[in-house]
Amino acid sequence: MSSSFLIFKIILSLIVLALVILWFILPEMVTPTGLIAGKVLYPAAPAELVGVQVSLLKDGAAVQSVMVDAQGGFLFTPVPYGDYVILAGKTYEDGRVLKGMMAIKLDHPEQMDVEVTLERELIRTEAGN
User: Fold this and answer.
1) What is the per-residue pLDDT across 106-127, written as a single tens digit (0 to 9) for each?
2) Is the peptide bond between 78 and the residue preceding it cis, with omega within 30 degrees of 0?
3) Helix (H, G, I), strand (E, B) or coil at 36
């Protein structure tokens, strides 16, 4: 057997070994993700859901933001596992604000279904009214 053939076999064996190692290690290196599907509710006036923005916050920063559909639905995907806050809101030109929030923990690949209920925030005027 020639020395070049022996070197070729060694290199080929190392490549195969590296591929086998990657086959088992690589899945652990990929960040697992899931998806969050939800609905925004505003029982006082369901028609006012148009224009509601929903944001997915991680450590106080928005990682995804969407507008709800006509029925108040929204979807975030892909979402890495972790702890999040979902913030939904709408601000009117006259200063009225609708807001809702909830904390969640995403820890599985199946769809997580959530509901966020909006509430009207009280606004104080300069006179304190």
Assistant:
1) 998 889 999 999 998 876 555 5
2) yes
3) strand
Strand segments (E) across 1-129: 33-41, 53-58, 61-67, 73-80, 82-91, 97-106, 111-117, 119-121
Mapped onto helix, strand or coil, the DSSP state of residue 70 is coil
Q: Coil, helix or strand for 14? A: helix
Report field, pTM of the whole predicted structure over 0.85: no
Q: Which amino acid is at 37?
A: A
Q: Give the HSE-up count for residue 122: Cα atoms under 13 Å, Cβ half-sphere.
A: 3
Sheet containing 111-117: give its strands across.
73-80, 33-41, 111-117
Lookup: tokens for 78: 């892909």
Beta bridge partners of 115: 39
Residue for token pair 């904390």:
103
